[in-house]
Amino acid sequence: MNTPQSTSIPRRRWGIGALLGIGVLINYIDRIGLSVAAPQIQDLFKLSSVEMGLLFSAFAWSYAILQIPVGMVLDKFGPTKVGRYGAFLWGIASTITALSSGFAGIFFARILLGIAEAPAFPVSSKATGYWFPRKERGLATAIFDAAAKFSNVIGVPLVAVVVVSFGWRWGFALTAMLSFMYFFAFLIFYRDPSADPHLSRAELDYIQQGGAAPEGKADNGAIGMLGYLLRQTKVWGLTIGFAAYGYSFYLFLTWLPGYLVQTMHMSILKSAGYAAIPWVFATLTDLFVGGWLIDHLISRGCDESRVRKTVLIIGMLFGLAVFGATQTVDPVWAIFWISIALGGLASAAPVGWSLPSLIAPKGGAGTIGGIMNFVNNLMGAAAPIVTGYIVGATNSFTNAFFVAGIILLVGIISFVFVLGKIEPIAEPAVSQHS
């Protein structure tokens, strides 16, 4: 089969990739606002470490619970419709957050934000599968996944300046404005490839001939596809491994600024600056190791499954550097070890997010993404609560980081022994009643 050279065709797909990345960037600025404002909110409302852990986790509970239903809805209606409704609701949820007062109000608003943002990553993952050939899927996925890390580089300092200058409510007002701006951008620019009037025939052929995920619904219906996928060992290998990544990711996402304030005795602004350092490192490893390097090696003829799995496992092993942070009270060394850990995890993350569209049968990528992200975010909900209890009981983050390291070991074992070869799952038999 003759495939057009990628250098001789238009590159509209990369504009779509950038759009999806901007969406995830704003998504995560929404989420981290509470982490930055936490010391101010905790002091104002006299909240305990356990109560703060509950506030940190509220978003993750509703977000996690909706992942599988959202994945099924996404496989039925597609990224265009689901992405539009989701983006609009981000702005509504952030507006309500800005108007909340007290523990109960903020808790409710964070649950609502989790509902609003539940489709964000599955939409980006499925849309990337539609828009990119397999050999470009690494970098395309890394763009939106790295945006989640980069949000901590620009989002934490930005929100910190607003919170310190104008108060925590204005931090959430800022994220509401950004969310509505993205809604209008997505409404105007995003279409699936087959419906995009600005996509050339040459680029569409290049995308489809390169192994893009086929558009359309599953042949045996959403419920049938869910049941089929839940019986696949490969899906569970991916899910358990990615959930282990999610625990450490959410621990740092929610507690890193508080850790620096409490353990290293920093101000909010200083902690925001220090906290940005590991996320800079994570953004770079996400793009260049989890994205560019994978695509480069595959384009040079290396085995696709072996390349992706090697980066996945080595990245998780580097995540074990979190153990180093348990052995120091020096902020420079703590940031060093956390940077190594987050950098490793970030290089593995886009591999994880590329897998649903790479292993799914037709019409199943959203559902696999939903299953994976459901368990991932259950761990994400548990991480801040467990950390809050440990910190409250011991007045130290040492054991909290140790727990994260043990969970990472379980994830590495799952990726090595349960996931298997990265290749498409066989199509399910078509139901007579679909």
Question: Given the structure, what is the number of helices?
Answer: 16
Please give the alpha-carbon distance between the first and last residues. Answer: 34 Å
Using only CA atoms, what is the Rg? 21 Å
Element order, helices and strands? HHHHHHHHHHHHHHHH
Class per helix and strand makeup: mainly alpha
Show unreliable segments: none
Mean pLDDT: 84
Describe the largest sheet.
none
Q: Report the count of strand segments.
A: 0
Short characterization:
The chain is mostly helical. The chain has 16 helices and no strands. The two termini are 34 Å apart.
Task: Outline the secondary-structure elements.
Blueprint: H1 12-45, H2 49-65, H3 67-98, H4 102-117, H5 120-131, H6 137-166, H7 168-189, H8 201-209, H9 222-230, H10 233-262, H11 268-299, H12 304-319, H13 322-325, H14 331-359, H15 365-394, H16 398-417
Helix pairs in contact: 1-2, 1-4, 1-5, 1-6, 1-7, 1-10, 2-4, 2-15, 3-4, 3-5, 3-7, 3-15, 5-6, 5-14, 5-15, 6-7, 6-11, 6-14, 10-11, 10-14, 10-15, 10-16, 11-12, 11-14, 12-14, 12-16, 14-15, 15-16
Descriptive notes:
- The protein has 434 residues and is mostly helical.
- Helices cover 79% and strands 0% of the residues.
- The chain is built from 16 helices and no strands.
- It has helices spanning 12-45, 49-65, 67-98, 102-117, 120-131, 137-166, 168-189, 201-209, 222-230, 233-262, 268-299, 304-319, 322-325, 331-359, 365-394, 398-417.
- The chain is globular.
- Keywords: Membrane, Transmembrane, Transmembrane helix.
- Its main location: membrane.
- It is a multi-pass membrane protein.
- This is MFS transporter.
